[in-house]
Amino acid sequence: MEQHKTLVEVTSNKIIDFMKDQNLDIGDKLPNEYELIDVVGVGRSTLREAIKMLVSKNILEVRHGAGTFVSKQKGIANDPFGFGLIKDQDKMTADLFELRYLLEPTMAAMAAQHATAEQIEKLKYLQNELKRLIREGDDTHILVDMEFHTTIAEASGNIALSHIVPIINQSIGLYNSNNDPKDPKGSIDFHDEILAAIEARDPVYAMDAMTVHMAMNRNKMKKKKSV
């Protein structure tokens, strides 16, 4: 049994190496099962177990009838740091907001310097989508809000930030009992300022706009805790 587990792990690593060698990106499709068997040199059952392992780690996703694809989650598990196990969830969430306050202003400044035209267009799309969802009273605007910040992290050009920031934001969404999806006031205006700064390639303006945005979010949470 242990040898089989090891073989599955080795096979999953071979699949990851293959993805890197082929420069597969998010949403790209992997070869079919028969081709992958030739690539990794194992039987069908071992290959399927290896794929299951990678799916569980959010590295791959299987779309029935379509095939196996690189996951948009970039290998990020729902709670990789174990935040859900921390007893004092309010303190943990407050500390995560503090971490965002430290990271995201610099991240926005970097995005103003490094964002591609495609990333700026994506930010515009997400901002318009956020406005629409808030206008319609759709609580899923929170997901678009997180995607907006994730895109800024990606636009910063810093690979570590592009992986860490989504984890922080997702954890806040999962565990913040003070998070009120019906209280989006201010987010739209702040996002407009941040987006304008990034589009203008003005890192100082971008940093200031994000600093104010993070400070307002942090203060809003503190007020809710004191009520």
Automatic annotation (TrEMBL):
| Keywords of this entry | DNA-binding, Transcription, Transcription regulation
Identify the SMART domains for this entry: FCD, HTH_GNTR
The record's annotation in InterPro entries points to: GntR_C (IPR011711), TF_FadR/GntR_C (IPR008920), Tscrpt_reg_HTH_GntR (IPR000524), WH-like_DNA-bd_sf (IPR036388), WH_DNA-bd_sf (IPR036390)
Q: Name one GO molecular function term.
A: DNA-binding transcription factor activity
Q: Which residues form the HTH gntR-type domain?
A: 5-73
Could you tell me which PROSITE patterns the record lists for this protein? HTH_GNTR
Give the protein name, as stated in the record.
HTH gntR-type domain-containing protein
Q: Which organism is it from?
A: Candidatus Enterococcus testudinis
